[in-house]
Amino acid sequence: MNISKHEQRVLHVLAQGGAIHYERGANGKVSDITCISRDGHILTDCTFAVFDRLKKRRFIRSTGGQPYRVTQRGLGAVRAQLDNR
After folding, report:
1. What is the pLDDT of residues 49-77, one digit of tens each?
2. DSSP class of residue 3?
3. What values do phi and psi take at 68, rounded to 5?
């Protein structure tokens, strides 16, 4: 499946335990998103367009008002990358 570099980067952070925190506007739709890694760093590659695309492909999901996390389908789509620690 074709996934852009920014989508890969966001999925990789989510697969390592990160989350996408969001806020809803007055109309009930998601208005602001922040992608936070498990170390507490904010990922700037997570734009609203990338978020919508990942959500549309069902790579990420929010359950019960919790932050968005990667799904099994998202884990299968992400390519393995070296962890630069």
Report:
1. 999 999 999 999 999 999 999 999 999 99
2. -
3. -70, 135
